[in-house]
Amino acid sequence: MDLSCLQENSTLILETFSIILVLCLAYFFKTKKTTTTPPEASGAWPIIGHFKVFNGSDLPHVALSSMADQYGPIFMVRLGIRRVLVVSNWEIAKDIFTTHDVFVSDRPDYIAARILGFNGASFSFTPYGPYWVGIRKIISQELLSISRLQKLKHAREFELESAIKNMHDLWREKRDGQGKVLVEMKKWFGELNMNTMLKVVAGKRYTGGVDDEDEEEMKSCREVMRDWFEYLGRFVVADALPFLGWMDLGGYEKKMKRVAKKLDSMVSKWLEEHHRKRSSTNDIAGEVMDVMIQVVKDDDVSGYTADTIIKATCESLMGGGADTTTVMLTWILSLLLNNRYALKKAQEELDKQVGKDRRVHESDIKNMVYLQAVVIETLRLYPVTFLGGPRAFTKDCTIAGYHVPKGTWLLTNMWKLHRDPKIWPDPCKFRPERFLTPDHKGLDVKWIDFELIPFGAGRRRCPGITFANQMLHIVLAILLQNFEMSTPNDEPVDMSAIAGLTNAKASPFEVLVSPR
């Protein structure tokens, strides 16, 4: 081989090597850029990470909100071996629940959801897939459709009429010298909503005080549903460190199993009654349980029996409908009593639009713009859940320029998102009037406007939005039409909340009531 040929080959090799080096460097920097992960909050403890955030003295949404002030609207915390992405910005939430929604529609497998969600049979906590799609379709088209809700309208009206009558009876029996009676409103709302959902789901009714046995049954239903929601929102040590699951630190798994067993026993009894009724008569009612028996006939759907699917679905609907509506009505009335001008304005609107000579109807609500604004403003300040339902990424995604690995959990801090001062002037103040201005009038709380997503967003948003809105508005309207309300000694209502999947009010809620 001559020298010129050797030099030619050497030049070719050098050029090839240079091209490969440039390509490798380009790939390296590209990969490095796209695999930048969200900032991780400091303060993680060895092994357990930020577990104390979810079980500390501050409620999780408050602690995570403080972290967002420091690290920005998207950051990461560690729950033991789990990575948890925390988002508190509407634009980032919009990107997640539109562009990436299919990849973040899974539910994380945590202890509470496993024990209290029938090991995945409950549509609220089952992984995203064919089973969830099938159950969601049944709920949307069969159980909570507009036509079904219209058929069940009589149940809502009957229970509301009964609850108002009971309030009047209580006033006549126990009013004080000033013509007022003290009413525990959380209990009153709870009995109304529990009776309504029991009637809609299972055709059952507990009177809530007329009969001792009924009173005990009603108390049991309320307590088990409240416990159900409280524990569903709790992360335990085994969620962060699965290898410590056998220890059941704090005894929470034992408590969850006790709640699950009690609830299962109650719903199983109702289901057996409906099976017997179907076998003995052709006159079948249109309650949710009957519809489910008719629709779910296969005894092996994704490994679940028909009865398991029916019970899991009914429990989710009953718990969601009763507990969340009770929680929201409690916050609405609490805010009105702490802002008496708004209470007066809502009652003046009722007097103008309906008057005092007839009972307000659901068809009147569309004309009550201020009352609607009161409800929306409450949902902004106190959404159904402060942190939304937890999600899990099923694919690597790029969110706000950050690489989020598959398997990461997602929490949307709606309490923080809804208080963005760039969107809401005086964000922490209760101002229903903000929804009567051109800027915010007509905001859709269903999911379209991501500045306001109290019922969640994307595929896994709450399927009962229509039912919830109907109940919130008509209950509030009839209550304000019938009664004057105030607090003992005109003291402000304590607005502290307790931890749980829903943000229930912590303290008792006693209100002085008199007929209008």
Protein architecture, described:
With 516 residues, the chain is α+β, with helices and mostly antiparallel strands. It has one domain (38-515): Cytochrome P450 (Cytochrome p450), CATH 1.10.630. The chain has helices at residues 3-34, 51-55, 60-71, 90-98, 111-116, 130-143, 146-151, 153-174, 185-202, 212-232, 237-240, 252-280, 288-295, 306-338, 340-353, 369-381, 414-417, 465-482, and strands at residues 74-79, 82-87, 181-184, 391-392, 397-399, 402-404, 409-412, 483-486, 510-515. The strands form three sheets. The protein has a four-stranded mixed sheet with strand order 1-2-7-4, covered by helices on one side. The chain has a three-stranded antiparallel sheet with strand order 3-9-8. It has a two-stranded antiparallel ribbon with strand order 5-6. Strand 1 and strand 2 form a beta hairpin. The longest helix is centred in the middle third of the chain and has 33 residues, at 306-338.
